[in-house]
Write a structure and sequence with these properties.
Number of helices: 12
CATH superfamily of the largest domain: Response regulator
Number of domains: 3
Strand content: 15-25%
Structural class: alpha/beta
Order of helices and strands: EHEHEHEHEHHHEHHEEHEEHHEE
Shape: globular
Radius of gyration: 27 Å
CATH topology of the largest domain: Rossmann fold
Largest sheet: 5 strands, parallel
Number of strands: 12
């Protein structure tokens, strides 16, 4: 086997997939195969591998778990995961925690795989060259510090060399940024592609419910409710991921600000959460002085802010305990505050340091099997600040969490 070939480790519990991959790419690359993660670990311990490709769904050790281990012990190897669209949580975890180069849907296409391997090894070589350049720069800098007094001419020569290498490093960093952008685009593509099947599932579920003439049993009603809840959770996660990507791209976007009536928006939103809250026996309480309260805002942004805060308050409220979620409007001079308060688990001092950070899950857990992406509060903070407002959390006099969103008050002047 030629020693100058790039080395690929392909891990899959399906022997047929291993044989097809080996037959397809063994002439161009040095291919190593393993039937499970444990065998893959043994190969990595004895052979330098440039690229690791693993299936997600494997017995005992999943693809994500295997790639986490690979990242810890063999960080220089590129990583690719193979899985289906239904494994959205695994895809998100692989992107966020395993630093994968690419996600590929199964069954993979040979031409797409060929192009992916080519780009992966280009990125691998780029990373290697970059590390060598950084090492060269460090060595050159140390040499300059030692010889600056006695060898001025040599210092100048090396300075010119450093400047050239710095330019090369800048060029390489630009290319790495392009690769990072490509990874972000892949993430966005995955999220967009997940929307359609979820919408189809929702439509089929409602069609099934309407066309079923016989009454559902108690268990069937429970299962249908669980399906609807999981569809809603998936839709909310997708919306949050799309919001995060949109906000990252549009940092210079000027939000159109208008006269926004909180007294109309908030009761309407609470009405939309009425069925969900009743099923958990959570009471929604709205407090206002019965007058219209206007702020300088944007109706879409305001809806997205309080959709996250109110859904979180219900999600983390105790089930079947007749607890309350309060939404209060308070006017204070030229400011208007909206207080969202629940009687749930609250948050710890450690949580305070992670509030409003992306992909940071706090100590509290949902009380009825709901899921959480760790994006909601970061989106709330970004949207609020773009409206010229502020958001913060305060200790609650009762058990639970209290969030306050403050907006500039609208006046006719």
């Amino acid at each position: 086997m030629a020693t100058d070939k790039y080395r690929i480790l392909y891990v899959d519990d399906e022997l047929g997939n291993l044989n097809v991959f080996n037959a397809t790419f063994r002439r161009e690359y040095a291919v190593f195969t393993a039937n499970n993660a444990t065998e893959g670990m043994k190969i990595l311990g004895s052979t330098q591998i440039d690229l690791i490709i693993t299936d997600q769904r494997m017995p005992k050790i999943t693809g994500v778990e295997f790639l986490k281990w690979c990242k810890a012990y063999y960080p220089d190897s590129m990583r690719i995961i193979l899985t289906g669209f239904s494994d959205s949580d695994a895809i998100i975890t692989a992107i966020n925690e395993c630093d994968i180069y690419r996600y590929i849907a199964k069954p993979w296409d040979s031409e797409e795989m060929k192009l992916t391997l080519k780009k992966a090894f280009e990125a691998h070589q780029l990373r290697k060259d970059n590390q060598e350049l950084i090492a060269d720069l460090k060595e050159a800098k140390e040499s300059l510090e030692q010889k600056v007094v006695e060898r001025t001419a040599e210092v100048m020569r090396q300075k010119e060399e450093i400047e050239k290498k710095s330019q090369t490093l800048e060029d390489q960093n630009y290319l790495l940024q392009e690769l990072d952008n490509e990874k972000n685009n892949i993430t966005s593509m995955i999220v967009h592609d997940l929307q359609s099947p979820i919408n189809r599932i929702r439509g089929l579920l409602e069609l099934f419910t309407m066309e079923n003439n016989a009454p559902f049993s108690e268990n069937q009603v429970l299962y249908l409710d669980l399906i609807r809840r999981n569809i809603s959770d998936a839709s909310r996660h997708i919306r949050n991921l799309l919001d995060t990507k949109e906000l990252e791209k549009s940092t210079d976007y000027q939000v159109p600000l208008t006269k926004t009536n909180l007294s109309a928006i908030l009761p309407s939103m609470l009405e939309g959460y009425k069925e969900q809250s009743m099923k958990k026996k959570v009471n929604l309480q709205f407090e206002n002085n019965d007058e219209d309260v206007y702020v300088i805002g944007n109706e879409d942004y305001v809806n997205r802010i309080f959709d996250n805060l109110i859904s979180n308050a219900i999600k983390f409220s105790p089930k079947d305990s007749n607890s309350n979620v309060f939404v209060k409007i308070k006017e204070n001079g030229n400011k208007v505050s909206v207080i969202v308060q629940d009687e749930g688990q609250g948050f710890t001092e450690e949580d305070r340091g992670n509030l409003f950070k992306k992909f940071k899950k706090l100590s509290a857990t949902p009380t009825n099997g709901e899921s959480s992406s760790g994006l909601g509060l970061s989106i709330v903070k970004t949207l609020t600040e773009r409206l010229g407002g502020k958001v913060w959390a305060e200790d609650s006099k009762i058990k639970g969490a209290t969030f306050i969103v403050e907006f500039p008050k609208y006046t006719d002047n």
